[in-house]
Amino acid sequence: MARLLLLSTPVGAIGSGLGGGVELTLTNIARSLIALNHSVTVVAPEGSALEDIPLIQIPGHLQITAQSQGRDALVTLPPNSVLGKMWDYARHNQSDYDVIINFAYDWLPFYLTPFFDCAIAHLVSMGSLTDAMDHIIEQVASSFPTTIAVHSLAQAETFRFKDACFNLKNGFDLTQYQFNPTPKHQLAWVGRIAPEKGLEDAVAAIEKARIPLKIWGVIQDESYWQSIQANYPDAAIEYCGFLPTQDLQKALGESQALLMTPRWVEAFGNVAIEALACGVPVIAYRRGGPAEIVKDGKTGWLVEPDSIEGLVSAIAKLDHIDRAMCRQDAELEYSLSAMGNRLEIWLDRIVQSRNSSFGCA
Ligand code: UDP
């Protein structure tokens, strides 16, 4: 049994949606580790909610999301930084833990790594975005080999240190997702409403395919959302808010397919597995994590990136996909126990390489 301290993203409280997929990823990893009899404590911004998992809430100002900045963005911290204070907590309490797991895509935790006595594992949640982040992660990958994990090979490929990355993929509590064999006449789009997510392509496609689109997720960029509504005034779209997993999966299950139209290299795409778990095929651009998740012609369709026509023809072929096969596929590779096996391998490697480099037992 290992004692593990999980440090959440500093861009939003767990449950707010502002932290994107990291919120659910952290929750699932915590559950998976507890099921393996490890002891888990989570440190997260104040206002976070986590059922049945020990949680330390830290007040302070949130970080700005890295994906909203340019490649040459400087490293910034607000006054009274929640990130700084979360890592103060980790520093003061590190002797109580065997491994600290960092979920923040932020410079500070990587920079601090050599100053800690406790081993730090980093789960990198996005592909290469800024030079400052690439540089600091690469330094850690070189000084502490084995400590960097990613969610997909495509994400690793965006980094120069791709060969040092452990591909953890992701895992979900599939008992929370119900298989729905009888969808309604609707498609789904789920995610943060922000430019890198490319919602406008899904809207353009459903307008051509003449099928309604339901949209779930936090509106992170209000002006982007306004511009989509202004550009497609007649599209049959309905914004249905940000729902907790239990309600989201029920509504998502009623859809004929999930559209994933990211502009960026999506590191993974949690929503793809959530859809498959409900028996919902995924139509995604052949780019980033979704291209590794979707089995073309079996659990959905992969489409030429940025092609609206491609999306439209994939929508027309949805009756070729067996919804039961989608659910089966999620169970095979993306259950909590499948991820638990991968987590054990990753954490064992970190502890062993730490022990051998420090010469302890
Ligand atoms: N999500 C949610 N409720 C909603 C819409 C989205 O809980 O109404 C969650 C979803 O479960 C997923 C996350 O938002 O975990 C989006 O993560 P993803 O990996 O797809 O993209 P990211 O936001 O990390 O880029």
UniProtKB/TrEMBL annotation:
Pfam families recorded: Glycos_transf_1
Matches recorded under Gene3D superfamilies: Glycogen Phosphorylase B (3.40.50.2000)
Sample GO molecular function, one term: glycosyltransferase activity
Glycosyl transferase family domain ranges (all copies): 182-319
Protein name in the entry: Glycosyl transferase family 1 domain-containing protein
Organism: Leptolyngbya boryana NIES-2135
